[in-house]
């Protein structure tokens, strides 16, 4: 099916023109949030040869512990020879790989980034609307090549990462699984927009003639104009079909997720790859209490350095616009800030009387600007997603109860919606299992060794460097147990046991069961010390809450009553 092919017949007439105009406006391509063709693999202007030559040998310089020397020797290059969006994206990718290679590629993390990285990185990030750190865009969206004859990016076996920190197949595979998932989800985007729009039109009186305006794509709900019975039916059928299709699509995304194990070894991931994904936020245990100072060179007087400390999340699949799009279009709401250090994060994110920013909201600022704007647009015009619109149709839509066929149509719609939320929750369950295998289990094994060796939680940052010689094992640092200062080793062993218990819960939990417990889980505070994610999230409670909030969205009664 072509990416813009949509289910037949909108009640307000066909609005495909508007839809087709809408997506490119937000840089959503036939491959979804991936570019429409493979990203640039080299900057054409020879001026950038110093960058290109270093990025090609980044992994080996990290391996022999000389990466910082090489980066320090780079000239501070200007951006005025980057002429296209593809070139700007590649510059961002290169510079963020340099930044993370520099910070984490040594015996201790570097808390100062030098001007050859910071000066162009700050500029290019500003242009692209991204933070000056590695993101899902650097590692995934703009970091792949494909050998597929028809450039089908859903085929993970034919994808390869352009760049890695470790030079391992495991790291490439880790990135490429996400690329294939993004590609797999692409076709559903216009289908869902069309399905939702069609359903919304049951509530609206769109004047004819306005229909092709992109700004009118999803109009505000209006009093019903009582369209014909047939048109109602067609609208409901269209919305139902799009919801059935999303379940199929998410299942296919899940099959790709299942392939992670094929070529990415959990220990290689945990000990060698994950350290380089880490950010500078919540990294006190790793040796970055203030974050990283972005040194922009000497000040005008020449006595001090220009620049500032920055605390930024690490690159994470949690920054995928596709998954957030699915949440928004279905009407899933997330509230967890995912913070393991509430006080420090709260002062950064909120004023005295403001609500804490949720993880999902916060990481939108780690998405390319136009993708972020797309999500905001769908939120603004989407009427609360399918959950909100179905509830409105049930409450205020045209009277359909008089006809048996329409009642059955509505029942199908509701069933398809619930199945879709379950499919997304099931995807999150699979993801939880992955996190268990790739983070929880290796960290538990390591924490036990650390305790036996007499280390405390903080000192674990120096334990067991794997891979490159002399490199701090930052996987340990970035997954530091969030133990209180007075927690003793016994507590930590107990925690490791609890984590194991959580693992059992994760792998056996069933969506239905978890649905029933969703309300009780939601908002519950987890007092136990927890592992943190690459972005500094308290891992398991956060991921479970995200899953449970997905299931909760399927409960339409909370909207209608
Ligand atoms: C070995 C594979 C993976 C591991 C170890 C992993 C780990 C994590 C961690 C630690 C987080 C917490 C947030 C953070 O720290 O930034 C997270 C969040 C997330 N990850 Fe993954 N991840 C993996 C693969 C994937 C893939 C392939 C996807 C597909 C898009 C994905 C999607 C997400 C999403 C959407 C979140 C945000 C939480 C949510 O919305 O449920 N992850 N992941």
From TrEMBL:
The keyword Disulfide bond does not apply. PROSITE patterns: IDO_1. The keyword NAD does not apply. GO terms for molecular function: heme binding; indoleamine 2,3-dioxygenase activity; metal ion binding. It holds the Pfam family IDO. Heme b binds at residue 431. Residues 204-226, 336-356, 499-537 are annotated as: Disordered. Keywords: Heme, Iron, Metal-binding. One of its GO terms (cellular component) is cytoplasm. InterPro entries: Indolamine_dOase, Trp/Indoleamine_2_3_dOase-like. It comes from the Eukaryota. GO terms for biological process: 'de novo' NAD+ biosynthetic process from L-tryptophan; L-tryptophan catabolic process to kynurenine. PANTHER family: INDOLEAMINE 2,3-DIOXYGENASE (PTHR28657:SF10). Belongs to the indoleamine 2,3-dioxygenase family. This is Indoleamine 2,3-dioxygenase.
């Amino acid at each position: 099916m072509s990416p813009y092919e949509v289910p037949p017949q909108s009640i307000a007439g066909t609005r495909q023109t508007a839809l087709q105009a809408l997506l490119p406006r937000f840089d959503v391509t036939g491959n979804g949030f991936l570019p429409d063709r493979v990203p640039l693999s080299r900057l054409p202007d020879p001026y950038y040869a110093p960058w290109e030559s270093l990025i090609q040998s980044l992994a080996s310089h990290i391996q022999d512990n000389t990466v910082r020397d090489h980066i320090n020797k780079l000239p501070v290059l200007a951006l005025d020879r980057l002429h296209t969006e593809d070139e700007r994206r590649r510059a961002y990718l290169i510079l963020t790989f340099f930044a993370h290679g520099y910070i984490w590629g040594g015996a201790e993390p570097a808390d100062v980034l030098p001007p050859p990285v910071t000066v162009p990185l700050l500029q290019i990030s500003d242009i692209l609307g991204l933070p000056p750190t590695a993101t899902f865009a650097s590692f995934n969206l703009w970091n792949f090549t494909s050998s597929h004859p028809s450039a089908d990016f859903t085929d993970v076996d034919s994808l390869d990462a352009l760049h890695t920190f470790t030079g391992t197949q495991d790291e490439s595979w880790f990135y490429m699984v996400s690329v294939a998932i993004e590609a797999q989800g692409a076709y559903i985007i216009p289908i869902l927009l069309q399905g939702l729009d069609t359903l919304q039109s049951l509530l609206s009186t769109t004047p004819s003639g306005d229909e092709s305006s992109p700004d009118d794509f999803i109009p505000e709900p209006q009093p019903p104009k009582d369209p014909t019975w047939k048109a109602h039916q067609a609208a409901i059928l269209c919305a139902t079909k799009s919801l059935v299709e999303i379940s199929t699509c998410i299942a296919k995304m899940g099959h790709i997720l299942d392939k992670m194990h094929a070529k990415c070894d959990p220990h290689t991931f945990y000990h060698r790859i994950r350290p380089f994904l880490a950010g500078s936020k919540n990294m006190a245990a790793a040796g970055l209490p203030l974050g990283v100072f972005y040194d922009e060179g000497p000040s005008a007087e020449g006595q001090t350095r220009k620049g500032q400390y920055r605390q930024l999340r690490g690159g994470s699949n949690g920054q995928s616009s596709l998954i957030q799009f699915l949440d928004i279009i279905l009407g899933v709401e997330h509230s967890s800030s995912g913070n393991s250090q509430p006080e420090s994060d709260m002062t950064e994110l909120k004023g005295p009387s403001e609500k804490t920013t949720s993880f999902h909201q916060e990481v939108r600022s780690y998405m390319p600007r136009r993708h972020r704007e797309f999500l905001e647009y769908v939120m603004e015009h989407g009427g609360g997603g399918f959950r909100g619109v179905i509830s409105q149709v049930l409450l205020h839509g045209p009277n359909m109860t008089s006809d048996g066929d329409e009642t059955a149509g509505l029942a199908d719609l509701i069933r398809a919606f619930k199945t879709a939320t379950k499919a997304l929750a099931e995807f999150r369950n699979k993801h939880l299992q992955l996190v268990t295998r790739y983070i929880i289990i290796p960290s538990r094994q390591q924490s036990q060794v650390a305790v036996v060796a007499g280390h405390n939680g903080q000192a674990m940052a120096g334990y067991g460097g794997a891979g490159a010689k002399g490199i701090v094992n930052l996987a340990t640092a970035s997954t530091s147990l969030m133990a209180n200062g007075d927690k003793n080793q016994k507590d930590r062993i107990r925690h490791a046991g609890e984590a194991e218990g959580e693992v059992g819960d994760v792998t056996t939990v069933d969506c239905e069961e978890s649905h029933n417990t969703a309300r009780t889980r939601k908002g519950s505070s987890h007092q136990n010390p927890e592992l943190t994610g690459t972005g500094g999230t308290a891992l398991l409670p956060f991921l479970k809450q995200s899953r449970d909030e997905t299931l909760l969205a399927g409960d339409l009664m909370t909207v209608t009553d």
